[in-house]
Fold this protein.
Amino acid sequence: MKNKKDIEQIFQEKLRDFEANPPQESWDYISEKINEKEEKKRIIPLFWLKSAIVSTSVAAVLLISYFLFNDKIDSNLPKNNTEIAHQSPEIQNQKITENNLHNHSKIDAKTAEIINHQNNITDSKNTNFSVNTITAESSLPKSNTSKNIKLTNNTLNSVEKNKTNLENQSSEEKKLAKNLQPEITPNQKNIEEKSPIVLAENNLENSAKKEQEVLKKEENILAQNNSEENIFKTKLEKETQKETQKKSKKLSVFANYTPLFASSTKGSAISNSFDNNTKSFDDNNSFGVGIQYAINDKISVRTGVNNYSLNHKTENIIFFKANSTASISYNNSYKTLSLNENGQNMVILNNNASFYNADVVGSVNSGTLNQEMSFIEIPIELSYNLLNKKLKINTITGLSSVILDKNAVSVSSNNTKTEIGKSNNINDVHFTGNVGLGFSYPFSKNLDLKLEPTFKYHFNTFKDKQNSFSPYFIGIYTGFVYKF
Amino acid sequence: MNVEELISSCLQKNAQSQRELYDYLAPKLFGACLKYAQNQDDAKDYFQESFILIFKNLHQFNFKSDLFFWAKKITINHCISQLKKNKNLAFTDLETIETHEEINEEEEFSIDQLLKLVQELPTQYKMVFNLYVLDHYSHREIAEMLNISEGTSKSNLSRAKMILKQKITSQQKNTLYYHEK
């Protein structure tokens, strides 16, 4: 006889209390996972420590190499200048000595002594031109001419004094006159033919006059050179001042206060069941300090430390205390929340979700679920100058390492807030991508006022990879920049 | 060692106690996972993940209910949440048809045969059938767990039962055919 059996009954009989042995390896996996908590805690700071060390050392190497490179260029410049300054008198002296040797090789020892003496004097004058090499060189032929004439004059004086050796002297005069021939006019040549003494006297007078004229000219040139030199010196000083000013203004520090206007991608950081609830951020702000270094007129790098908070509200929720077993079956959120004593057996539901009154311990409240997070941010940013006038405009791009600081979850209803624990799915370190536009305006000589609307998008904020929820914000970074 | 001592010892990360608790619960919970999963591999994943959840939430157990009951709830919840991730999940929202599916029990079905039939059910029907028939959840509870209406829960249950009946009947016919041959 055929027995009619309900299908439910067939399955219940065999499968209701059905037991089966799990695979052997399951226990190894489970025991490893449930006892790995401490190791995990160690891994995160290590990762952070490593990345911090790497980024700091890269930044340090870049800065140091840049400073070293800069120093080389700077130290090369004055060195070359001093070399030129040192070399030029020598070169000039050599030139002068060569000229003198050529002109006066036939003059006797006494004259040579005078020449040397004169050279020394002239040399000391020439050193005055050392700074402005070109000017000094251009004045060389003139001063040489004057020197030659001076020599002649001195020689003639000695002729006058030694009248007893007149003949010998006159022969010397002849030789000297021959040497001077290219510089003497045809009229003087005629005089020379008449008498050596007259010639000598005439020469003496002419030479004296010439000498005076040349001396005047020389003085003028000297004065001119001096004034040119002074102008050059002052120019040089001004330029060095400017350079030092420019150089020093490459480094600046800044402080900013930032109101944040935050929002997020769709979804919920706490539970999928709140995906469609209204969410908002409030009372969010940031403050921080930083340091900026201008690599050149266009590009600057900067870093710093900011502290900011993001208070994320999930609205339209109900919450109540339930008995412990019921709370687990109700609440998927226990996976992302580590509840404290207040939060034990707390059931948080979407306000249109149904529940059993029998499970409720106490009363059912409606309100908001608040996720309070604060972070320490270390940005590394590059700013590119678009407008470099009184008002400066620049673009800002960069990345920030974000370290979780405060992490608290609370429920609030009718102005009563109860902290129920914290989120356990926020990564200790995550990142933001930063894009912004900066405006700065000089407030005083060293102080600029800055305003930088910047968009920052959070990456990898939550451990749960299926959770695509990501906060982002626009911060109006407002503050002062002090330039050294 | 009573349950209380066992749990407090587990909370202190005592490896031996952890193993003891595992040995006590594992066959029951793996059995539950096999019913909800599509195959052995999925069941193993659900089982392991559920067990980790149980250990990590052990401090929440308040000794008022049975430990197995509490652990099974966590396991079932986890299986459901994993199955809900299936993007092709579509619950049939038909008018509730109260059916009373009966079959002629001509031969005994093995556990493996029945388990295979359950595993092969479309996910949405399998969840409702398992929760209602094998784990004694009410339609209201199921509706809440699966975010569906009670009506949908009922209609999906009757659809599940119809599928199972068809499969069993066709298997019986095949067996009969082979017998006659």
Summary: The mean pLDDT of chain A is 70. Chain A has two domains: 70-244, 249-483.
